[in-house]
Design brief:
four-stranded parallel β-sheet, Rossmann fold, disordered C terminus, arsenical resistance
Length: 153
């Protein structure tokens, strides 16, 4: 089973949405993935993240904000993906077999629901491409460039 960890600063928005997306895409494609998310510090899962993911049929209601110490076997992941620059800078070193990826997304916190949806939709495209690549055995996208105009509004 492939293990995936998604890291962000607070594990309250982007990493939670990414966890839900990766888990959903893996289930749709019949791919056996173990997916976790964590933050460099724990806070709470933000209500707009729960709301915009519910619009896609993905339930984050039971999710909690976690740190690496809350994740099972935190040093044994096949992929570690950071979704914000702060997490990328503070991400611990992983063993050589772990593939580190950085997919930086705009922080939608404080933005309108339209901003949350725009970030969710960008993440949806990127993480679907990630899961499709894993499932097909092709090269996983190394990075993600944020689309101009996606800043928080």
């Amino acid at each position: 089973m492939t293990r995936v960890l998604i890291l962000c600063t607070h594990n309250s928005a982007r990493s939670q949405m990414a966890e839900g997306l990766v888990r959903s895409f893996a289930r749709q494609q019949g791919l056996d993935l173990e997916v976790h998310s964590a933050g460099t510090e724990a806070t709470h899962v933000k209500a707009p993240a729960v709301q915009v993911m519910r619009e896609l049929g993905i339930d984050l209601q039971g999710h909690t904000s976690k740190t690496l110490s809350d994740v099972p076997d935190p040093w044994n992941f096949d992929y570690v993906i950071t979704v914000c620059d702060g997490a990328a800078e503070n991400c611990p070193n992983y063993p050589g077999a772990t593939i580190r990826l950085h997919y930086p997304f705009v922080d939608p916190s404080g933005g309108s629901l339209e901003c949350w949806r725009a970030v969710r939709d960008q993440m949806r495209l990127q993480f679907e491409a990630f899961v499709v690549a894993l499932n097909s055995g092709t090269v996983v996208p190394e990075t993600y460039e944020v689309t101009p105009g996606a800043e928080a509004q």
